[in-house]
Amino acid sequence: MELYVAIAAAVIALCSLAVSIWQGYISRKHARLSVIPDIGIYFSISAYSEFVGIAIENNGLGTARIKSIQISNLEAKGSPETIVSDTSGWKDLLSVFELRNGRVRWASISPGEGIPSGEQHKLIEIPKNDPDLELLQSRLRAMVDSFGIRIEYESMYEEPSVFEWPMDQTGQNPSPYTLIRWIKWVRTHLRIP
Question: Which one of 9, 139, 159, 186 is most buried, counting C-beta atoms within 10 A?
Fold first, then answer.
């Protein structure tokens, strides 16, 4: 009889140990998931919006630490031309897309910088009171259609992620870039204003 009691006690102890290990695993997984950043890009071309320009935004739950950033002109002659690579090329960004004037503001973002949850980092901002606002808005629209951006970032737990615009070159997930091209094709071929 004592043998059965000892075996039962050992089984209960092993089950308790297994539950404790499982609980630790679940707690750790929850802690990691509760601080995952989610980087996206925000295009604002309408004069009625908060600002006119392009921003990187973090819609995730934790701070995104930037590892690298590249901005390319996809419609350059030949192959895509890299304009911005981490800390270099930011001054050329406005010139390449013909947005340079004394009033258009730009802000670089460097590797190691963080974007807190729910915050934006404005890359390009056009003042709403700019006398050339309509011209600059049309050039900004053209920029959105012809540029690519790749941002490598990580969470507080150093878990890497990548954001790319236009998204998913494999075609598995239709990207907004693909949608914009499709809408332009439909408008052109069906003569929709």
Answer: 139
Strands 52-58 and 39-44: antiparallel
Biggest CA pair distance of the chain: 94
Task: State how far the Cα of 126 lies from the Cα of 131, in Å rounded to an integer.
Answer: 11
pLDDT tens for residues 159-172?
Answer: 898 888 775 444 34
Above 90 in pLDDT, residue 91? no
Q: Tell me which residue of 112, 140, 114, 111 sits closest to 58, measured CA to CA.
A: 114
Predicted pLDDT of residue 186: 55
Using left for φ > 0, alpha for ψ between -120 and 50, and beta otherwise, residue 183 falls in alpha
Which amino acid does the sequence have at 95? S
Tokens, residue 67: 């590892």
> Other CB atoms closer than 10 Å to residue 19's CB: what's the count?
10
CA distances (Å), 79 to each of 42, 76, 97, 98, in order? 25, 6, 16, 20
Question: Considering the entire predicted model, what is its pTM?
Answer: 0.72
Helix (H, G, I), strand (E, B) or coil at 16: helix
The gap from C-alpha 61 to its chain's centroid, in whole angstroms, comes to 14
53: its two tokens: 């320009």
